[in-house]
Amino acid sequence: MRSFTTLEQRIDAGAHRFLDNAATGGFRSRLTEFVVFGLKQAWACIFGAALLAVLMAARLWYPEDAALARNDFLTIAAVLIQVLMVVARLETLRELRVIVLFHLVGTVMELFKTDVGSWSYEAEGFLRIGAVPLFSGFMYAAVGSYMVRVYRLFDLRFARYPRRWITAIVAAGIYVNFFTHHYIWDARWVLLAAVVIIFGRCVMHFRVFRRNFRMPLVIAFLLVALFIWIAENIATWSGAWLYPSQLNGWQLVPFEKLVAWFLLMIISVVLVAWVYKPEPPEKPEEPAEALPAVAADVSSVD
Questions:
Q1: End-to-end C-alpha distance for the chain, whole angstroms
Q2: Which of 109, 128, 157, 162 can pair with 205 through a Cys bridge, CB separation 3.0 to 4.6 Å?
Q3: Positive or negative, the Cα torsion across 165, 171, 175, 176?
Q4: Contact residues for 245 (Cβ-Cβ < 8 A; gap 6+)
Q5: What Å distances lie between residue 126 and 58, 121, 122, 139, 239, CA to CA?
Q6: Which residues of 164-198 are buried (b: 16+ CB within 10 A; e: fewer)?
Q7: Would you tell me how many other CB atoms lie within 10 Å of the CB of residue 162?
């Protein structure tokens, strides 16, 4: 199993003292696995959850006449969250490298997308590049933080993972298309088909507590993209940024953005693979046991 940070080792030891006597079979065992799954997911999302909490608090309580512009406050808060993540050893310096890369990749996209009018920010504050406040890059960093943390917390393994050079080419094509589709033919549906073909046979194996589970990787991409879309709705409601359809009053983020986030998952996975090389499962695949009331497409391997 991949190593935890120092703090996570203490949390894990305490959790085992509490859970080692839990039932090993039946409904209570499944319920334990489900609760632990939710707690691990929440722990993996801690950076993004903290950033969303700050965005919502700023929307509800930040004074309109404050000397410090709200966007500058959000940038300072995001920097403090990132520093605390490292100082408190919630992230390793090795993981910080890929998170910084997410930040840079996202900021470049933000500069272009705001320039062509895909979305907009309030033109306030000093901590910005052009029309893009610096906190925007931290929203991409939050995705990177989740990806590297979930990889470690669930000891992710991959059966039939495609060659990394192929995934890198597809990821590069996806990233380029985010820019070029404003000027030439939009290739997102071709890229989407390529993703399904290339990753369609790949199965993700992960450990929750006592059990190993598996899920088609494409389904995992879709679920993560769905939760990011939900978070995006919270962020736009807070006024962090707005899409053109929201300028005259907030409404749900267009559902087609889910496709964009799904494709962004490919870029995310390729970046994370730079830190953690995808490894095959430790045990050969066995017949799967369904997980009722948890996830229809997830199977258990004892």
A1: 16
A2: 157
A3: positive
A4: 251, 254
A5: 17, 13, 12, 19, 18
A6: eeebbebbebbbebbeeeeeeeebbeebeebbeeb
A7: 17
